[in-house]
Here is the input.
Amino acid sequence: MRRAAIVAMIALATLQSAAACSSKKEDDGTTPLATKEELPALAIGEDTPNLLLTWIDEKGDMHVELKPADVPAEGRSLVRVVVSDREDGTKGLFYVVDLTKKRDDGTYAARTMTRRAWESEVEKRRSAYLAKIAPPPPAPTDAPSAAQGPKQTPEPPVVASDLTVIVYGADWCKPCHQAEDYLRSKGVRVVKKDVEASPEAALEMRDKLDKSGQRGGSIPVIDIRGQILVGFSTRAVDRALAKASSGTAL
Here is the structure.
């Protein structure tokens, strides 16, 4: 009798275990992945202090402003926001706002965007613009005759060894890093100033742009002894370096 009771208890426990297992839904690979982490809520207004606002033009160039009102119509739908006195939004996740959508209280609500998505948007606009302006392929030409002689390679500019260049940019800005690397390859000392991490650097950059008549320039902004270059071009950098080394720069 006791043996029969034990067998019955084991059978009951087995049935309960099977029922519990069957109630759990197996992962068949269709369960969606968890959504990306969201940054803490953020809303900005026209007079919010310590803002650094980055917008992208149709060329894929990035511009930095300090107030929402300074962002032009072409860039207002997607603006990256950095609040200089808080770390949120400066690493893998960014704050972005749509300045065409003001709330009833006069503020703009920020949403989270990954760094990768932001950089992809920059590259997409740049690629589209380059494709639009690309010239047709040149017609084939005959090889140069021997009378023309070998093609002459231009001499690299002579750069003063004590030359220091300031590059205003941001950590995520690829052309900024390209400009820094190119300048260093010329033997130039480079001082980097991150306009998103430092409001002072942003104001300094804006002041130089205003004085040179280049209001609203994109980053990088390069100061070569008073010559203010907007964007990165090896030709423009070489010309400015040569001029600075000759002592004719401002």
